[in-house]
Amino acid sequence: MRRPAPDDPSIDGVTTPEYRLINHFFHDFKGGLSTVIMCLDALRDGIEGAVTPGQDKWLEKAERNCQHLVSLIDDFRDLTRMEDSSHQLESEPLDPGAMFERLSTRVADDASRRRIRTAFDFVDDLPGPRAGSPLVGRILERLYGVLVDCTRTGGLVQTTVRIEGTGPVPELVLVIESEGVESDAELLDTVFDKFRQTGAGLQLGRGYTMLFCRAAARYIGGDLQLAPWPGRGTRADLRLPLATTGT
Q1: Domain check: are 117 and 199 in the same one?
Q2: 57 and 163 inside one domain
Q3: Position 185 in a domain
Q4: Which residue, among 61, 157, 60, 67, has the nearest Cα to 107 in the 3D structure?
Q5: Structurally, how many domains does the chain consist of?
Q6: Is 147 helix (H, G, I), strand (E, B) or coil?
Q7: How many Å apart are CA 217 and CA 174, to the nearest integer?
Q8: Which of 113, 138, 183, 231 has the most crowded CB, counting CB atoms within 10 A?
Q9: Comparing C-alpha atoms, which of 155, 152, 159 is closest to residue 117?
Q10: How far apart are CA 74 and CA 189, in angstroms?
């Protein structure tokens, strides 16, 4: 990968036209994967005859992996847009209560495959309807996907949720603790560096998912940090703004 001249507009050494070319090809890749997912769905629904429990298991795994690839493509494309400030900040109706109900169910379903325990502790009542970025739910979904995958079998993922601030844009604050291998703060920080992470022996969050989560959180005025959970594993501190309706 070449390094650009000082006056060559670039992101981490890749020129903006090169990023646009990658995004262009990823658009085609995503279309193909979406078709594969549609075919897998049709097979699981019995369009070609009844599916046995064993076949259903493998079809589910194949679909899950395809969905993961689609998510990676979406995250890469949006991450590059955020890095060159071309991603549009949009707002949509947001119901924090319903969002966490869906999230806790999804997290529990994902965790059950590896006999992982999950817990949510809501310190404060969740606010009423908000007008928030569609990135909020996506950040939460992606972050928990990584943390659940990296939690040791039979371990615990526990979350404390609170609200900070009483003004027009209070913050949703999550402390997520995951039992697993404990890494020091310096090693955890490599997760958020595209180039340093390739040479680190850390499994947690390598690739684009955690990069996307932090970039997206900061793009909407929040933040994401990782720290050791002493003697237990890893702690993620996430802050996301929740705008009042109409802002």
Answers
A1: yes
A2: no
A3: yes
A4: 157
A5: 2
A6: helix
A7: 12
A8: 183
A9: 155
A10: 23
Question: What Å distances lie between residue 192 and 62, 63, 168, 183, CA to CA?
Answer: 28, 28, 30, 14
Separation of alpha carbons 3 and 194, rounded Å: 15
Structure tokens at 209: 């998912």
DSSP structure class, residue 123: S
3-state SS class at 230: coil
Q: Which residue has the tokens 């897998």?
A: 40
- What is the residue range of 177's domain? 92-241
Of 54-58, 84-88, 89-93, 167-171, give the lowest mean pLDDT range: 54-58
Find all residues with CB under 8 Å of 220, minimum gap 6, and list them.
Answer: 89, 133, 135, 136, 240, 241
What is the DSSP pairing of strand 117-122 with strand 156-164?
parallel
Last residue of a domain, one of 34, 61, 83: 83
The H or E element spanning position 26 is: helix 16-44
- 97 with 79, same domain: the answer is no
pTM of the model: 0.75
The answer to whether residues 76 and 97 belong to one domain is: no
Domain boundary among 32, 56, 83: 83
Strands (E), the chain: 10-11, 14-15, 92-94, 117-122, 130-132, 156-164, 171-179, 223-229, 233-241
pLDDT the model gives residue 16: 63
In a domain, 8, yes or no: no
Q: Taking a C-beta distance cutoff of 8 angstroms, is the pair 205, 189 a contact?
A: no
- The tokens describing 2, both together, are 């070449």
pLDDT score for 141: 93
